Amino acid sequence: MTVTQSTEVTSNLLEFLAARLKQPWQPDADLFTAGVVTSLFAMELVVYLEEAFGVEVTGDELLLDNFRTVRAMTALVDRLRATA
Q1: Nearest-5° Cα angle at 66, 80 to 24
Q2: Please, what's the b/e burial string for 30-60 (b: 16 or more CB within 10 A of its CB; e: otherwise)?
Q3: Of 11, 22, 44, 52, which residue is least crowded by CB atoms under 10 Å?
Q4: Residue among 75, 77, 72 nearest 25 (CA)
Q5: What is the CATH superfamily name and number for domain 3-83?
Q6: Cβ pair 78, 6 in contact under 8 A
Q7: How far apart are the first and last CA of the chain?
Q8: What is the mean pLDDT of each run of 10 residues along the chain (84 residues)?
Q9: DSSP secondary structure code for residue 68 in this structure
Q10: pTM of the model
């Protein structure tokens, strides 16, 4: 994964969250601490990552910490793409 691809993933996720949450979001802001993630929205994030970035999030990757911040989700996409 190149820096450019990671930057694109981060930008894409920030745009998605801003549209979905109706507010701008920071890459290191904790979605769960902020209280903006419901269990339904958490699953929506999983589906979004899979569809937008062509990855498959399996059971061992369904950890809260992988979805806590945009940076964590970017790192998850990077790892999943690297092993695909």
Answers
A1: 110
A2: ebeeeeebeeebeeebbebbeeebebebeee
A3: 22
A4: 72
A5: ACP-like (1.10.1200.10)
A6: yes
A7: 11
A8: 81 96 95 92 95 95 95 97 88
A9: S
A10: 0.92
